Amino acid sequence: MSIINKKVTVGNLGAKVRSDCQVSLELKDTGGIQLAINSKVKAIFGKSIEKLCADVLHFFDIEHAVLELEDRGALPFVISARIEAALKQLIETDKEYLPEIIPENTTESKKEQFRFSRLYLPGNTPSMMINAGIHKPNGIILDLEDAVAPDKKEEARYLVRNALRAVNFYGAERMVRINQLPNGLDDLDFVVPHNVNLLLIPKCESADQIHQVEVRIAQIRKKTGVKHQIFFMPIIESALGVEKAFEIASSSDNVVAMAIGLEDFTADLGVQRTNEGIESFYARTRLVNACKAAGIQPIDSVFSDVSDMKALAENVKKSKALGFEGMGCIHPRQIVVIHENFAPETAQIEKAQKIIRAFEEAKTKGLGVVSLGTKMIDPPVVKRAETTLNLAIELGLISKNWLEEKE
Predict the structure, then answer these.
(1) E strand residue ranges, 344-389
(2) CB 5 within 8 A of CB 113
(3) Partners of 23 in the beta sheet?
(4) pTM exceeding the 0.70 threshold for the entire prediction
(5) Between β-strands 20-27 and 7-11, what pairing exists: parallel, antiparallel or unpaired?
(6) Which of 21, 152, 243, 339 could staple 71 via S-S, CB 3.0–4.6 A?
(7) Which CATH architecture has domain 109-342?
(8) SS3 for 91?
(9) Which CATH architecture has domain 7-87?
(10) Phi–psi pair at 368, nearest 5 degrees
(11) What's the CA gap between 313 and 287, in Å, rounded?
C-alpha cells in the first residue's frame, strides 16, 4: 500500500453547517492512532464517534495517523464517508467502508411509475438528504453535478454512495444526477452497486452518450454482480440536444423519461429565461413530441422562484397543457403545488370512470365494440382513461376500488 505523506481536509465547516463534519487526516510512520474530536454531542456520543473513527482507519489497515474531527451533528454514514474520502487521497486501495443497507433502499422502480416531482438535493450537503423523503416527492435526486463545487466533487461521491445505502427516502425513487460525460462515467462506480433507481444524464446531446453509460454499467455489473434495474433520464440542455431529442429518447430501453434544463438551454441560445416561456416554447414542445413518439415520459425543467407559489402553479398548468408529465423542484414547498396542479381535474376523472365502466360492460357482454353514448371508444382512449384513474388513485382522489362502488 503506497502512502502519500501530507495532511488533507474534507467535509464542511461553518456557522450554518449542520448534520455534517470536517475531517483532517495525516498519516504517520509512528505514534499509533491519535484522535482529536470536537463535537457538540461529544458528551453523549463521544465514545461512539471515537470507535467509528478507529474502526474506519483499522478497516483500511491504518496503524499510525492523526485524525481531527470537527463535528456538527453528523450521522455515522456521513462521518465514515468523510474519513474515507480523506483517506483515499492519501492511499491507494479498492476497499470500501460501506454502511449497512436499510431494507427500504432495496426497492426497485418501474418504467411507467408517476414522476410528477423530483427534488434536487446537493450531493455534498447531508443535512438536506436526511429528512427529504418526508416531503413525499416522487423522486429524490442526489446531485453530483451543478450543485457541487468542483473541488468537492470527489468527496461528494462517497457521501452520495453512503446516503443511497443508509438514508430512508420513504418510497421516493432514488435518483442521482451524475456529472457531464466523460467525468460522469467515474461517478457510476460510486452509485450503480448501491441501489440507485435512476440516473440523470446531464447536457445530453447524442445517443452515443447513453450507450457510453450503458457500457460502463455493464462493466460494473460484471465486476460487482449487481443485477437490479437502473433507468435513465437524459437532460436536454442545449440547442443540439433539442435537435437530437428523438434520437436520445429512443436510444435505449433503459431510458424511461427525458427532462429539459431551461437555465442551460436559454444560456445556449443567448436569451433570458422568463416565466412566460416564449423563448423555450419550441424546445419544450419538441421534447414532449419526441418523448411521446418514443413512449417515455417528458419532464419539465425546475421553476427557480421558490417564493412564488402562484406563479409556480400557473407554470405547472402550462407544463401539463403542453404534455409534460412532471417537473423538477429545488425546494420541498414546491412539491405539493406541483402534485396538485398535475393532478387530474374532477371532470377528467368522471369522464375516465365512464369510459372504463363502458369498457368493462362491453367485455362482460362479449362485445368487440365499445361505445359511450353515441361515441365509439378506441383502445388509446381507454388507455388514457386508465392512466387518469391510476393517477387519481395514487393521489388519493378516488378509491382503488372505485369500479366496485356505486355511482
Answers:
(1) 371-372, 375-376
(2) no
(3) 10, 69
(4) yes
(5) antiparallel
(6) 21
(7) Alpha-Beta Barrel (3.20)
(8) strand
(9) 2-Layer Sandwich (3.30)
(10) -90, -10
(11) 21
